[in-house]
Design brief:
This protein is mostly helical and 245 residues long. 44% of the residues lie in helices and 6% in strands. Strands 1-5-4 form a three-stranded antiparallel sheet, with no helix packed on it. Strands 2-3 form a two-stranded antiparallel ribbon. The longest helix is centred in the middle third of the chain and has 16 residues.
Length: 245
Amino acid sequence: MRYARWRVALGAVLCALALCAGCGGATNGAATPSDIPSDALMQGVRSTYGQYEHTVTLIPAYRQQIEDLLQRNVYRGGSEPVEAVIADGVITADEMDELERGVVACYAKYDLQTNVDYYFNEYGFGMHHWDLSHHDFLRDPGRINQLELECEFDSGYSVVSQYYWQAYTNPDNIDIKPYQYQCLKEHDLLAMDLLMYEDYLRAYNGQRSGPLVKGMLSTTPLINAQVLRCDSDPLHNIANSPLGR
């Protein structure tokens, strides 16, 4: 299968971390890992939908960012459902479940199934990538844009999901890079010459060539998954986390 259409910057960051600093469906809500192509699992997609566990609180900075997005009309018709969800300052697991099931139902109108034709991100909003092999109309980027606008943006799912994960993985909106470094170091994933955070930061900012992490991780799914966790959610994957866990 061929996969396309990266939806978030996370994919680019993971590429830089995992390879080099300059490198260019189930209807019951679940699929077993064996049902999902191994390359998809390595890139951080989920095998489930509508099964959230956490309620998160939006700090004022996140509330303001959301309001700024809505005022700029970035999310078109999604403003009303977004405002309804964030009105009390929290995003509940039930609210996320409802929004995500709505996305699945919307795509189902076009005979599109999750974990078959598209995949949800493990962290962040939107589809991590589309499988273009089942439906000819998916080969048209304009058609995909129309579908995404209807099912993800106008429903409010895109912005709510984005900030749900932001509030979960970084509830106080702190600088996450030192903890990304700590996570990679604790899991023995850093390239050997990145002994200090300053070395890592220079590499992260593209001031060196060569790998940031050990090995060619494209052939090692378990390591790839840990790199993704360190990049996307370091605070839940380190010792002595500022989250107190």
